[in-house]
Design brief:
- By secondary structure, this protein is mainly alpha-helical.
- Helix content is 66%, strand content 3%.
- The protein has a two-stranded antiparallel sheet.
- A hairpin with a 6-residue loop joins strand 1 and strand 2.
- The termini are far apart.
- The structure holds zinc ion.
C-alpha cells in the first residue's frame, strides 16, 4: 500500500472515530437529560403521593407528619409577616396580597372584608 493510500485510510479512520465519539457524546448528553427529566418526574410523583398521604394522616401521632405540619404553619407565619410588611394580609383562599378596605381579593374574587377585623 502506497503512502498516499495509507494516509487516506488513516484520515478516513480518524474521521470515523471522531464521528463515533461525537455520537457517543450526543447519546450521553441525551441519556443524562432523559434521566434528569425522569428523576424530576419521580420527585413530583413522590411529592404528590406525600401530599395525599399527609392530608389523609395529618392528625396521626407521627414525627414526620408533625414536622410537615410545623413547616406548613411556619410558612403561613412567614407569609403573614411578608404580607404585613407589604401593608396588607394574605387572601385566605389564594394567598394573594389584600389590603384593608378591599372588599374582594383582586386575584381570586374571594370576599375578604372580614379578615381585617380582629
Ligand atoms: Zn384570593
Amino acid at each position: 500500500m502506497g503512502f498516499l493510500d495509507e494516509l487516506t485510510e488513516g484520515i478516513a479512520n480518524t474521521t470515523r472515530d471522531i464521528g463515533k465519539m461525537a455520537q457517543n457524546a450526543g447519546d450521553l448528553t441525551k441519556l443524562q437529560y432523559d434521566k434528569k427529566v425522569k428523576e424530576q418526574e419521580l420527585q413530583k410523583l413522590y411529592e404528590n403521593l406525600g401530599k395525599k398521604f399527609y392530608n389523609s394522616h395529618k392528625d396521626e401521632d407521627d414525627d414526620e407528619i408533625k414536622e410537615i405540619t410545623a413547616c406548613i404553619l411556619r410558612i403561613k407565619e412567614y407569609t403573614n409577616d411578608i404580607m404585613e410588611l407589604k401593608g396588607g394580609k394574605a387572601c385566605t383562599r389564594c394567598g394573594a396580597l389584600v389590603k384593608a378596605g378591599d372588599k374582594y381579593c383582586s386575584a381570586c374574587g374571594e370576599k375578604i372584608d372580614d379578615i381585617f377585623e380582629e
